[in-house]
Amino acid sequence: MRSRPPVRPPGAPRRSPWRGYVYVLPAFAVYFAFAVLPALHTAYLSLFEWDGVTLGEWVGLGNYQEILQDAVLRRSVFNALVLVVFFSFVPIVLGLAMTGLLARYRRPGMGAYRFLFMLPQVVPLVAVGVTWRWLYGDDGLVNQTFRAVGLDGVTRAWLGDFGAALIAVGLVGTWVLSGLCMMLFLSGVQKVDPSLYEAARIDGAGPVREFVSVTLPHLRGELAVAMTVTTVAALASFDIVYVTTNGGPGEQTTVPGLLVYRLAFSEGKVGLAAALAVVLGCLILGIVYLINRLSRSET
Amino acid sequence: MESTHRVRRRIAGAVCAVALVLPLTACDALTPGSAAAVPGPRSVPSSTAVPDDDITLRLQFADAPPMVDALIAAFEKDHPGISVEPQYKTFTDYVQNLKLTMTSDSAPDIAQYAVGMTDLAADGHILDLAPYREAYGWDESIPPVSLDQLTAGQNSEATGGRALFGVPAGLSMTGIYYNKELAERAGIDGPPRTLAEFEDQLAAAKEAGLTPLGVGGLDTGGLHLWAALLNQTMPTDDYWDWVNGTKGATLENKAGTTASELVVEWGRKGYYNESANGTAQLDSTAQFTKGDSVFLVNGNWAAGQLATAMGDNVGFFPMPGERADDPTVASGFSVAYAVSSRTEHPEAAGAFLDFLTSPEAGQIISDNGFLPPNPEAVAKPKGVLADVAEGHRRAVADDGITTFPDFAAPAMLDRLRSGVQKLIADRIEPADYLDSLQDEWEEHHAE
């Protein structure tokens, strides 16, 4: 504890170190009851073999052992990591590129652009999934486009193809999250002091140089946020996969979120589902921590 | 002031200590779930008399709300003392909550039979209806094979015979639809009599430049195809043993391998729609109505839709056997209803179930697109619906209605779906596929 201020006004009550906590208590109680406690409960359940109804059986770390040994579960974690590329890296690169194009000059109709790019964020993910399932279908727009330009050989049912399904699902994520990234970066750019751009231009910097030397360094905070949000979206993905492929074909697009749901609700393996959820949660927390560390140490 | 501070600190310390110790001491109480015994009897009384008081039955279900409403209305007219209160849930919702619902004190009196019921039956949460089977004479009004699907693999303590945990309202079965016009173009003159003949027809369709067989493998179409083939290669009793979890049952034999190899071989020969694994059942059906394939794997539930869209241009046959004189065997199930062990009115529930076997109910069931349990009692259907009814009649006569393979274990549906997708894409050896199913089977039936 820091040393107290040496002088206090006469008559003023001495401030108890507990008082601050009292103010925080209501918020903390709500947070504890609805976020911390369920998480702890999940971790606790992961130590049981439990079907959700009858008496559970204590198995200790047995469920975690099973996760490490089960090929399907391991495959699902691998798939989630592949999705990070499509949900996180590609949208951030695209978002940066669009920011570079849009931020330099104020153009009329910026609001309309922003609205359009933000649109995927507004649509419920289940609707997004259903729409893309049609687009990727046999006679869907994607195949129609390929046929129209004479690439008949490329067409296939994208979501049913062992090679293409995961990429196809990933690109849906790219579509959803690119707009979000761009919005974040655009708002970040607006904080940049215009005189910096002026100075750069006077020094003869071209658009690329200007972007790399002025825009990018100022976007570090936004980059960290974008990376965190999109990486979590990739690792915890469920809705898009559930609606488009339900994990198929084979286990090509099976992700941990889908397995947690299946194990808990249709297969009656609540303990194993909880264990997988805990592993997934730790993985996400670890990666988010890493992202935050990296973005901080650079400043 | 110093002293109050110390007191506060002491209280805080005590709270912390309690918080730390509590989980350790309370471990037993915190074990999830309950081992509480099921109240009341495990089977219905053998008398069919219904008391005169005003009785309200709660019926929870997930399929065909219009049919259920019509059935209830007709039943209440016959039994003024009993009212039935329907509680509809979407299928996914229903299945997910089934165990919780049926083990809670507020369980409905009557509930639709679904995959989890086997476990509930084993734990005594739903009533054994075997005494009613005899008292009401259900064997006369329902094909016994349809009742035998609802035994949950158990024997009845009350009658000593097979147990019964549900009564079917509408029946279902899978098979092959064909587009008559396209079939003619490929030189196919009618439903095949053997599996080999069906393969020749598929080859002829391929030869004619058509897509032979439409499969909606994204969800359940692939497993219907595989199960239909397995029904032909595997003795029906062995299949039942496997689905019911009888000790020693296995798919890792010649029958399982042959069926799985056929799925792979047809894929290699290009018999399926190119994107079978990316097409849902509903979509494959829609494509079939547009003439995208000569044949289609689906169930009787699609017949109404196909009849509307294609009129006389569509026909149906159950998957033919290896020899022409083999029995007709097809997978199917029923929209059936079970009775909770917690009900206070087993007699009234029995009266409702018995009503389902009446000609009046049969007509309502048939009108709503299901196969009625007692086909003689209803008006004769036309077109493809007649084909379906005829196929079902043959399968019932041969004791050849088997249940769906995913009833073997809760996780089996996912194993089957992804496994057959791999077979279709030639991505897995039949032996490895069967091994993965058997692993799941052994895990579930180990207890």
UniProtKB/TrEMBL annotation, chain A:
SUPFAM superfamilies: MetI-like. The chain crosses the membrane at residues 21-40, 80-103, 115-135, 162-186, 223-243, 270-291. Keywords: Cell membrane, Membrane, Transmembrane, Transmembrane helix, Transport. It is a multi-pass membrane protein. Pfam families: BPD_transp_1 (PF00528). It is found in: Cell membrane. GO terms for cellular component: plasma membrane. Its main location: membrane. It comes from the Bacteria. Coiled coil: none annotated. GO terms for biological process: transmembrane transport. Gene3D superfamilies: MetI-like. Residues 77-291 form the ABC transmembrane type-1 domain. PANTHER family: ABC TRANSPORTER PERMEASE PROTEIN (PTHR30193), INNER MEMBRANE ABC TRANSPORTER PERMEASE PROTEIN YCJO (PTHR30193:SF37). Belongs to the binding-protein-dependent transport system permease family. This is Sugar ABC transporter permease. It comes from Streptomyces sporangiiformans.
